[in-house]
Amino acid sequence: MTPLGTQDTHTAPCRLFARRHGQLARRLARCLAGWLAGWRAPVHGRISGTCRRSGRLGSVAGVCRALTLCLLAFLLPAISVHAHPHSWIDVRSAVLFADDGRITGLEQQWTFDELYTSYVVEEMGGGKKPSAKVVSQFAPKVIANLEPFRYFVDITADGKPVKPARVTQYASEMRGQRLWLRFVVPLASPIDPRRQATAFSVYDPTYYIAMEHADLRAVSLTGAPSAACQPALERSTPSPSVLARAFSMDAGAPADDTLGRQFAQKVVLTCR
């Protein structure tokens, strides 16, 4: 069980794909063929990149991941279908500024992939489509689970960790076929990015879940003095040995709390 409430989703991909037919199946077959052509490469980025290039039909990337894992479970037992990551989250971050130019918190918006959404929605609804009220109950449960892990948000000032305060603002809902979560991480003490080198990363320490900002447009500054701060998005460059370790990780293996940092993006703020 992870802080986000996911268990082993080994059978979930097949349940999800069983509800997809026709044209989608043909597109995903091409997606799978493209991925298998380079299956020796690590999972990180391979599946999502191949699927996104395969075309549109809803969230093709999320369903393609499901098909890939489903078929690998039956056709390629020599390849670990438990390889990390198991789920994907698209992250949007907003840095929150006070009138005096100091940072007071970080707003997070997480959009979960279709596979994770399908699994969670099935559990929440007891096999039926859950109501908006039921989906809204996802947020407080997950936030409580994330609290001991600093909400998967790592903020630093001059290279030192910045302690978050308790999250009290949160919401969850369905957006199309994907589950969406929003919450605000307040800082225990505001920091001044003009005097302190400020950066943050959003990641699951175990890399059970891959979390990424799609690009710099997924990072915004709320309340910042005009043109005073500029964010930069630094992407991770994990070594071949780290990639191999993630690819070979089995779901039953002990959690490695150092793995996620190796894949984490970093947002760096330059303020004057």
Give a brief rundown of this model.
The chain has 272 residues and is an alpha+beta fold. The chain has 9 helices and 11 strands. It has helices at residues 12-17, 23-36, 46-53, 60-75, 114-124, 132-136, 138-146, 240-248, 259-263; strands spanning 87-97, 103-112, 153-157, 160-161, 170-175, 178-191, 198-202, 209-212, 219-222, 229-234, 266-271.
Account of the 3D structure:
Mean pLDDT is 79; it is low at 8-23, 35-58 and 72-81. The protein has helices at 12-17, 23-36, 46-53, 60-75, 114-124, 132-136, 138-146, 240-248, 259-263; strands at residues 87-97, 103-112, 153-157, 160-161, 170-175, 178-191, 198-202, 209-212, 219-222, 229-234, 266-271. Strands 1, 2, 5, 6, 8 and 9 form a six-stranded mixed sheet that branches. A five-stranded antiparallel sheet has the order 4-3-7-11-10, with no helix packed on it. The protein contains nine helices and eleven strands. With 272 residues, it is α+β, with helices and mostly antiparallel strands.
Keywords:
single chain; 272 residues; alpha+beta; 6-stranded mixed sheet; 5-stranded antiparallel sheet; 9 helices; 31% helix; globular
